[in-house]
Design goal:
The chain is built from ten helices and eight strands. It is of the alpha/beta class. It has a six-stranded parallel beta sheet with strand order 5-4-1-6-7-8, sandwiched between helices. It has a two-stranded antiparallel sheet with strand order 2-3. The protein is elongated and about 60 Å long. The termini are close together.
Length: about 210
């Protein structure tokens, strides 16, 4: 059995970043004059920032809006973000079983690191600016044995990396959608993760 290394998505898997990201979008609207429905934007977190920005800005302004949003992000998005229920316990459970923790996110690593440091969530590796199948590269590189995420694209990433995908229904995707995307297991929230991890480890030992 390979050494335990569990990868996690960040937004709406480990942290509830909706209030902070909404505030950053509101600041972007104030700076650019382009209206962004912040609540709608944060209801569909998961895809890369450019995907969301493109809903609101004309193509020739997308890159400048992305840069502006990232410039505003540290001042608006970090402090309001909180760990989701069970996030700390999930990380502790992996360490207690001799494992390593990896975060693979579509957010750029610099901003993801600000969230982790602010909340005191210690991880062994962080890979950013990756989405769907792109995440599989980092999962394979760091020897991930499982990947946990709230989005159907995270289950695609796990399948592409050849590891079990564990869905957590705390983001925009339902349990049924996560299952349909290939999740090996779906949790309502990360508070269920330690027991689920023990079950998966036991199953692997028996195979």
């Amino acid at each position: 059995m390979p050494a335990l290394t569990v990868g996690f998505d960040l937004d709406m898997t480990l942290v509830d970043s909706r209030p902070g990201i909404a505030a950053a979008y509101q600041a972007l609207t104030a700076r650019t004059g382009v209206p962004v429905d912040a609540e709608l934007a944060v209801s569909r977190l998961g895809p890369p920032l450019r995907t969301e920005i493109a809903h609101w800005f004309p193509p020739e302004q997308v890159e400048s809006a992305v840069l502006a949003f990232r410039e505003l992000y540290p001042a608006y998005a970090i402090t309001p973000t909180l760990p989701l229920p069970g996030a700390r316990e999930a990380i502790d459970a992996i360490r207690a079983r001799g494992g390593r923790v990896l975060v693979v996110t579509s957010k750029i690593a610099r901003l993801a690191r600000l969230h982790l440091d602010h909340l005191g969530l210690t991880v062994d590796e962080l890979a950013g600016d990756l989405f769907a199948e792109q995440k599989a590269t980092a999962l394979r590189e760091h020897g991930a044995t499982h990947y946990v995420g709230d989005h159907v694209a995270d289950m695609v990433a796990a399948a592409a990396a050849g590891v079990p995908g564990i869905g957590v229904a705390t983001g925009p995707c339902s349990r049924a959608e996560l299952r349909a995307a290939g999740a090996d297991m779906v949790l309502d929230q990360l508070t269920e993760f330690p027991a689920a991890l023990d079950g998966m480890i036991q199953l692997a030992l028996e195979q």
